[in-house]
Recover the amino acids of this structure.
């Protein structure tokens, strides 16, 4: 996900009518070219994670102001079709803001602790960082409905603060997609190695790219395991298209060996990307 540089025009002495006309042209030009840039984000665990991001400034040009409102308990978006065979992190999308934020709930898998786990995020797709996160204190009893009801006023305040508009239904899109005449395909490249302690192949590193025949290629995510890898599978099960500003949220799904063996753990990383900027020509093309 490259760098956009803005070049300011030199001021020249112009008479008033000409200056007024040029100012109007510049306003239209700026409103249509206000897209993205470059920032890196590293993971917080021992593995090396790099989210490559060129999205620095993508403001929606719709002048309609945000209206604070209520929110219903979100519904699960199933991204892992074989969830019954794994301990799976569950995803509950909520909605979007016009300036590139995506709100969702995640229920991390319980890996034997006996606790119910819950997190709610407001994720900034521009820089691929959380703007706000709330995590439930460890509790042996709990479920989505109870946590949502007991903490609803707190959730509503933050979702309204970040101007999140709830979306009624979410669809996990797969395969190729199109936007403004461009066709896109998400590509996953992996490298494996033999893990001596396990005696079978594990993932040593992988990257995710978005390819467009017309625009080129854009690498949006890199992940490199440390010396001891427990990562046994990587997938891109699909993506979610934003209704605002030509952005996409790609779901990077990972499967790692369970702490005490099977069932394995399936979790995800969300990566936001622009669908117009940050692409580079393919070498040799």
């Amino acid at each position: 996900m490259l760098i956009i540089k803005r070049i300011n025009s030199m001021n020249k002495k112009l008479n008033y009518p000409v200056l007024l006309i040029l100012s109007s042209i510049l306003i239209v030009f700026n409103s249509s070219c206000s897209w993205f840039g470059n920032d890196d984000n590293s993971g917080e665990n021992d593995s090396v994670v790099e989210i490559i991001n060129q999205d620095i400034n993508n403001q929606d040009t719709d002048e309609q102001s945000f209206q604070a409102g209520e929110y219903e308990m979100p519904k699960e978006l199933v991204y892992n079709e074989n969830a019954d065979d794994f301990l799976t992190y569950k995803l509950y999308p909520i909605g979007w803001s016009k300036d590139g934020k995506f709100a969702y709930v995640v229920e991390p898998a319980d890996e034997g602790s006996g606790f119910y786990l819950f997190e709610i995020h407001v994720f900034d797709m521009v820089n691929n960082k959380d703007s706000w996160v709330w995590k439930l204190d460890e509790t042996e009893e709990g479920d989505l409905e109870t946590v949502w009801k007991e903490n609803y006023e707190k959730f509503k305040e933050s979702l309204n603060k970040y101007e999140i508009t709830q979306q009624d239904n979410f669809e996990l899109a797969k395969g190729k997609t199109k936007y403004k005449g461009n066709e896109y395909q998400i590509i996953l490249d992996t490298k494996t190695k033999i893990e001596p302690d396990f005696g079978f192949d594990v993932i040593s590193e992988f990257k995710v790219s978005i390819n467009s025949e017309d625009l080129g290629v854009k690498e949006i995510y890199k992940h490199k395991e440390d010396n001891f890898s427990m990562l046994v599978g990587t997938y891109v099960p699909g993506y979610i298209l934003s209704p605002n500003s030509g952005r996409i949220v790609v779901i990077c799904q990972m499967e790692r060996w369970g702490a005490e063996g099977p069932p394995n753990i399936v979790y995800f990383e969300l990566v936001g990307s622009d669908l117009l900027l940050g692409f580079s020509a393919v070498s040799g093309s």
